[in-house]
Write a structure and sequence with these properties.
This protein is mainly alpha-helical. The protein has a domain of about 25 residues. It contains 10 helices and 8 strands. Helix 5 runs antiparallel to helix 7 and helix 8 packs antiparallel against helix 9. The radius of gyration is 24 Å and the shape is globular. The termini are far apart.
């Protein structure tokens, strides 16, 4: 019986082979839909009078900010080739020659910054309470994020470090190592893995699934439970930022850093490759960004707790006349639906 898990052979990045439609993109679409539905659920719970078109526009501009921020941040922070400095139009160009390849490379942290900009801008435009709606949005996001990480798993990317754990998984497109390296030979012999042409594919932590569980399901459950127990407006925003940053910081110990970046801070020189865990005092780019998230979330909680009009449930959604108009429109739609039902009977 093998001491590791083989990556499911039925999983392919493309939903239909030969067509440029991938599970990764579909999972992100599912993520956005789930976030939207959970947001609407909270809107009904709080009896907020927001029309569907306005909510759709809020999500549209937030998603636009997310995609732009995620893409730009990825090309600035994670790309070391310099190609985007030489050809900046390629940042948003989804073709390579005549082949459609999509936008490969997105950064969560850049997406977060972009989403904040898009969300706050639209709330300011509509004169909405960004703290109140922001608390609702961050409660809706993590469960959708779960599907984003599942998309990474279906792509067979962002896998973790080499492990001898029984939950280690062999990813078909993971980097293979020369069998003559002492540490590779030791692990391969322990797991009874036979080299092919002098190379061996070793099991990795399925870190995408770790993230889907903790940064997705667990974080969502915490925020969902506390959604009606907020001490002040903006509390859930800070809790989400701290919670995500904390979970991701520790999961990064299981996730292999980008080969061309390695450790941004290496306090203990072990001589081990990034594919192996070396020390709790060596930090990747993702861990540094997560530490800044935790710090930023704490600062936000301190500020939000002292802002005026921070009592949960007191919502400003534009002028009183506009709110009254929303209520009238809602009543009118209900009356029209009742009349329609009577006619159908």
């Amino acid at each position: 019986m093998p001491l590791y898990i083989k990556y499911p052979t039925w999983i392919r990045p493309e939903i239909i082979p030969g067509l440029p439609v991938r599970w990764y993109g579909l999972m992100y679409l599912v993520a956005f839909v789930i976030a939207y539905l959970l947001f609407r659920r909270q809107q009904k719970e709080r009896n907020l009078h927001l029309d569907e078109d306005s909510i759709s526009s809020l999500f549209f501009w937030t998603i636009v900010g997310l995609l732009v921020g995620a893409r730009i941040f990825a090309t600035i922070v994670y790309d070391t080739s310099g190609i985007y400095l030489q050809k900046p139009w390629r940042i948003f160009w989804p073709f390579e020659g005549k082949k459609f390849v999509g936008l490969q490379g997105m950064s969560y942290h850049g997406g977060l910054l972009g989403a904040i900009v898009g969300f706050v801008w639209y709330c300011g435009y509509k004169k909405w309470d960004a703290r109140e709606l922001g608390d609702m949005l961050v409660v809706a996001v993590p469960l959708g994020y779960t599907f984003g990480r599942l998309g990474n798993f279906f792509n067979g990317e962002l896998y973790g470090r080499v492990t001898t754990s029984p939950i280690g998984m062999i990813f078909p497109h993971a980097e293979q190592f020369p069998y003559n390296l002492p540490w590779v030979k030791t692990i391969a012999e322990e797991l009874a893995i036979v080299p092919v042409n002098g190379y061996v594919n070793l099991p990795r932590h399925p870190s995408q699934l770790y993230e889907a569980l903790f940064e997705g399901i667990v974080l969502w459950a915490i925020l969902w439970f506390l959604r009606n127990k907020r001490p002040f407006k903006g509390f859930l925003i800070g809790l989400y930022i701290i919670g995500y940053g904390t979970f991701r910081f520790f999961i990064e110990y299981f996730r292999e850093p980008d080969a061309d970046l390695g450790y941004r801070i290496e306090l203990v020189k072990t001589g081990l490759p990034p594919a192996l865990f070396s020390s709790f005092f060596n930090f990747s780019t993702g861990q540094i960004l997560c530490f800044l998230m935790i710090l930023g979330g704490g600062i936000w909680l301190f500020i939000a707790s002292r802002l005026p009009n921070n009592k949960p449930g007191t919502v400003h959604l534009g002028s009183p006349a506009l709110v009254e108009q929303h209520q009238e429109d809602r009543s009118k739609r209900r009356n029209e639906q009742k009349k329609l039902r009577k006619k159908l009977k």
